[in-house]
Amino acid sequence: MPSPPAALQRKQYQLFIDRAPEAVFAFLVNGQNHARLCPAEMPEEILSGANAELADGSRLVVRAKRTELALTIERTLIWEVAEYHPPLGYALRQVEGPFKSWIHRRKLTPFTGGTLLADQIEYVLPGNPFVALAAHSFIGANMDKYYQHQQKPAKQTNPPTEEQSKPRNDLERIHQHRHEKGPAVKFMEAPELKEFLHFITQS
């Protein structure tokens, strides 16, 4: 029989964005952008807090909808900004939701003229160890589905020149070869960032 998962689970996704951290941060903390950036099959609507930018201690009330096996479940979530360090990142901590605990940190690091965006999620599954074991694979797969996207970034208005398309360093070579197996932390496009990339490349 498989062993129950460790109490604290961690996920991390990283992406290089060819924009300054200030521009990326300003877009991410604007609550009005959240709903339309979620995957179509995992819609979320901000019920309270969407008209203001995030700030330390502020809260977002979110309605999340998930459909599995023809069953649609809606749930109201409350997130609180637990850490706020513009323009280098912030964290959202679950106040009300399905997990025993959940915190999502977004870290923005200046890198080769752009931004390395890291989404780091730490969570504790609901229920006793046996319930957590049953939910472990399902929740992990859905979280990966939410954050990962293995297709190319959204099409840019001005295609890069041949010289600009060349990787500038080993990190970008890893990013360009994301179809190959690599370390546990991979450079992938998060689905909620697909439209975000389209937005900032045309701003």
Provide a descriptive summary of the structure in words.
- The structure is a single chain.
- The chain is an alpha+beta fold.
- The chain has a single domain (about 10-200), classed as START domain (Alpha-D-Glucose-1,6-Bisphosphate, Chain A, domain 4), CATH 3.30.530.
- It has 6 helices and 7 strands; from the N terminus they run E-H-H-E-E-E-E-E-E-H-H-H-H.
- The protein has a 7-stranded antiparallel β-sheet.
- A hairpin with a 2-residue loop joins strand 6 and strand 7.
- The chain starts with 7 loop residues before the first strand and ends with a helix.
List the helices and strands and how they pair.
Elements: E1 8-17, H1 21-28, H2 34-37, E2 44-48, E3 59-68, E4 71-85, E5 89-96, E6 101-111, E7 114-124, H3 129-147, H4 162-165, H5 170-176, H6 194-200
Antiparallel strand pairs: 1-7, 2-3, 3-4, 4-5, 5-6, 6-7
